[in-house]
Amino acid sequence: MSLARELSRFVLSLDAAALPAAVRTEAARSMLNWAGCAVGGCRHPAIDAAVAALLPFAAGTQCSLMGRRERTDALHAALINGMSAHVLDFDDTHLRTLMHPSVPVASSLMALAECMPITGERFLVAFVAGVEVECRIANAVWFAHNADWYITGTAGVFGAAAACAQVLDLAESQTTHALGLAAAQSAGTREMAGTMAKCFIHGRAAQNGLLAALLAQRGLTAAATAIEGVHGFAQVLAPRRDLDAVTAGLGTDWELLQNSYKPYACGVVAHPVIDACLRLRRAHRPDPAAIVRLDLRVSPRALELTGIVAPPDGLKSKWSLFHSAAVALVDGAAGEHQYTDERVNDPVVREVRSRVGAVADPSLSEIEARAVLSMSDGNVHEVHVEAVVGSAANPMSDADLADKVRGLALGLLPDRQVEALIGTCRGFAALPDASAIARAGALG
Amino acid sequence: MSLARELSRFVLSLDAAALPAAVRTEAARSMLNWAGCAVGGCRHPAIDAAVAALLPFAAGTQCSLMGRRERTDALHAALINGMSAHVLDFDDTHLRTLMHPSVPVASSLMALAECMPITGERFLVAFVAGVEVECRIANAVWFAHNADWYITGTAGVFGAAAACAQVLDLAESQTTHALGLAAAQSAGTREMAGTMAKCFIHGRAAQNGLLAALLAQRGLTAAATAIEGVHGFAQVLAPRRDLDAVTAGLGTDWELLQNSYKPYACGVVAHPVIDACLRLRRAHRPDPAAIVRLDLRVSPRALELTGIVAPPDGLKSKWSLFHSAAVALVDGAAGEHQYTDERVNDPVVREVRSRVGAVADPSLSEIEARAVLSMSDGNVHEVHVEAVVGSAANPMSDADLADKVRGLALGLLPDRQVEALIGTCRGFAALPDASAIARAGALG
If you measure CA to CA, which chain A residue comes closest to B204? Predict the structure, then answer.
């Protein structure tokens, strides 16, 4: 049996009763994080550009755009919400493969949910199925693939196709064709780093997966060997591959349990420093004007990837652990609002940033940091972060996740609507209509 | 200067006055061939499936579907007409790279031409520019790319983006971004051979190139180094590459002059045999019942790729030089109608097919064939085809091309409309409105 057919069989036979409670919980947390990111990114110039270009091609108004007032059809909603959910690079991560699981699957499913009745329970099963499919295909290639390709673009499209095939009630053969049509669209190279094309690649995975399912539903065919064939996805897009990984433990091991959420809106290797500074702030409430210096010891990779000492603008500040430390101490936060030109140029933040020093310490892992805060009154405060928030050893709590969403939605949705959105996501398996999340996330 | 920028500068500065007459002629011939193929494929089940799936997503009725009555928006028209123009595998070929130049460029431009006023002259310049861009990018990679990828899918998208950028009057920076957004969508592996996904890959090149230009017009950005960058198209999708080929002779050597048109609706290596049989038929009018045997000598590759002796159905008969020889002798044609289940099972065709023998002759090139026809009256007729019709040494005449279009459109468009379509394509540079071709090719 071809891999596409084996995955199709899994997807179509997945039953809600087979899902462990932890998987259900993580699905709800993923949806909350997705919704927050999609709202948070909704006013980015990339999204404004896409909306301006594509609204003339809206075939209807069935679907919401998260955080916005415009409405469009399902194919365009999948793309634009997918772009919006990724554009801040704040969405979830399957750490092993660097797949961002929710952008393809949640964005495509939510678009369908606004066109046809899908209960929360049904949505949850399809979401889990889609995430399994994309992450398992990613497991087979990431180690020989990620240097060149954005794996959410290339493998995420399979997840979207599988999830949509499930809720569209496709036959097994149609679902196999949908996965083949997904493979026919697998795209997105890393040359697009630092450009708007990056979020476009991610959003297209959602849209193209939905398109694959819609075409397969009407009889378009593709190769059943799309994944493992000699000219198929895994052979062509990865010089080495482990095809057994696609189905090993299928239905018993759940990739969704490996999903993680970024607590802070910057390069992930700077996160331990932020944890350290937030702890120092909570414990000692340091007056910024009284900070003499902050001495950091970090993993070598943290200094390598986020070593910009004096970032020139908000975008670059995401790659500065010095700026991250300063805003964590001054603002007590490291959300999207801390990485703006305004915060980069704020006099107090600048002054504190100039007092931060960092050395690479090879004895520290990437989830660790040490900080020593020296105050003008002679007090010295030390902290050692052993496992950063968001790591598998220290996952974000539900409360932290809700705070993250509040920060992302600040100024974009009314506060009461944000609380309603959080509540809707938390209880989404019980929703009679899964599209309540889209309605809760869009402006009326 | 990056390759994308250099190509953008070329595309935007290309002037009608700079085009040699032979290039203009070939553009008109390409458009005629494209229109005929798009009409000829319009009732294929792949097109029916795409229309059924995508008509609910039509944002308007500005655009025609060649050969059909339904209307849709520009993005969907580019896809569906592109699929239709390729589905019979009868469209034009840039022989060096195996790029099918017109499907991406003509399908996307025609969709735009139905939404905004574009003169024939303007269309012609954009068409030539788009074909140059895609074929030149193909020149850089084909030798290390085509084994895995459909180059019309992967490189054709650049041609569509470039052509659309031209008629949309994009700035040079926007056009560069459009080529980057094309690269971000470059896709389509050869695993899809023999499935409907193949024509889908080809049609997507048209749609995705148009999408790239529309997004760039509204400000979406991409990497300027999309083609040559270390994680860009050429590096990632080809283990070896010749980047100089992209710009060598740009503006003086015209890839469009290397375009060729298939005279017959079957695998190209069987074409010399068909030429031979058509010549025998014209010269001797053999009664099928009086044919004792036909002995063929062909290139080894012809027997390897089209060696099916007794094809079970119409689709498979395209890969049978035995069937091709039989229909050429019996019907005097080898168009789409000769590769149907009906012709495969016709008693006269079956009988003649059973009397065809073929041997591989390594002294014969792929454009050659020898045939010896033995009749029951003892007459023996010989013919040697030295250069098959459609090869660079023996291009299809304008009259042959028109006959091909007539054959393709048979039963799909009224005869008078077919003649009008042929006339419109032949004079298309002088059209006040280039979309006249689309109107001439669709059912009213």
Answer: A185
Q: Which CATH number fits domain B3-261+397-441: 3.40.50.1110, 1.10.4100.10, 1.20.59.10, 3.40.50.300?
A: 1.10.4100.10
A392 three-class SS? coil
Instruction: Choose the closest CB to A49 out of B147, B193, B215.
Output: B215
Say if the Cβ atoms of A231 and B56 lie within 8 Å.
Answer: no
Q: How far apart are CA B72 and CA B61, in angstroms?
A: 4
Name which CATH class applies to B268-385: alpha beta
Strands A259-260 and A369-375: unpaired
Cβ–Cβ gap B229/A191 under 8 Å: yes
Structure-token pair, residue A83: 């772009």
Q: Which residue of B has its CA nearest to A204?
A: B185
Q: Strands A291-298 and A369-375: what pairing? A: antiparallel
Q: What is the pLDDT of residue A194?
A: 82
Q: Smallest CA–CA separation between B28 and chain A, in Å?
A: 30
pTM: 0.92
Q: Which of A49, A57, A183 sits opposite B59 (nearest CB)?
A: A57
Contact residues on chain A for B49, CB-CB shorter than 8 A:
215, 218-220
How far is B205 from chain A, CA to nearest CA, in Å?
10
Contact B2, B227 (CB under 8 A): yes
Cβ A83 vs Cβ A202: under 8 Å:
yes
CATH number of A3-261+398-441: 1.10.4100.10
From first CA to last CA, the distance across chain B in angstroms is: 48
The pLDDT of residue A363 is 96
The SS3 of residue B356 is: strand
The rounded Cα B75 to chain-centroid distance in angstroms is 20
How many residues can be counted in chain B? 444
Supply the DSSP string of B124-169, one letter for each residue.
Answer: HHHHHHHHHHHHHHHHHHGGGTTTTB-HHHHTHHHHHHHHHHHHTT
What is the enclosing helix (H) or strand (E) of B325? helix B321-331
Q: Please check whether residue B205 touches A, CB under 8 A.
A: no
User: What single string gives the DSSP state of each residue in B372-417?
Assistant: EEEETTS-EEEEEESS-TTBTTBPPPHHHHHHHHHHHHTTTS-HHH
Domain spans of chain A, in order of start: 3-261+398-441, 268-385
Contact (CB, 8 A) for B125 and B176:
no
* Domain A3-261+398-441 identical in fold to domain A268-385: no
How many inter-chain contacts (A to B, CB under 8 Å) are there?
Answer: 184
Q: Quick one: how far is CA A6 from the chain centroid?
A: 27
Q: Say yes or no for a CB contact (<8 Å) between B223 and A197.
A: yes
pLDDT, one tens digit for every residue, chain A (444 residues): 999 999 999 999 999 999 999 999 999 999 999 999 999 999 999 999 999 999 999 999 999 999 999 999 999 999 999 999 999 989 999 988 989 999 999 999 999 999 999 999 999 999 999 999 999 999 999 999 999 999 999 999 999 999 999 999 999 999 999 999 999 999 999 999 889 999 999 999 999 999 999 999 999 999 999 999 999 999 999 999 999 999 999 999 999 999 999 999 888 889 999 999 999 999 999 999 999 999 999 999 899 889 999 999 888 898 899 999 999 999 999 988 899 999 999 999 999 999 999 999 999 998 899 999 999 999 999 999 999 998 878 899 999 999 999 999 999 999 999 999 999 999 989 999 999 999 999 998
Cβ of B180 within 8 Å of Cβ of A195? The answer is yes
Residue B293: Cβ-neighbour burial (10 angstroms; 0-12, 13-18, 19+): middle
Q: The tokens 């709590």 sit on which residue? A: A397
Give the whole-angstrom CA distance, residue A15 versus residue A19.
Answer: 7
- Smallest CA–CA distance, residue A319 to chain B, in Å, is 19
CB A323 within 8 A of CB A317: yes
- For chain B positions 311-350, those within 8 Å of chain A (CB to CB) are none
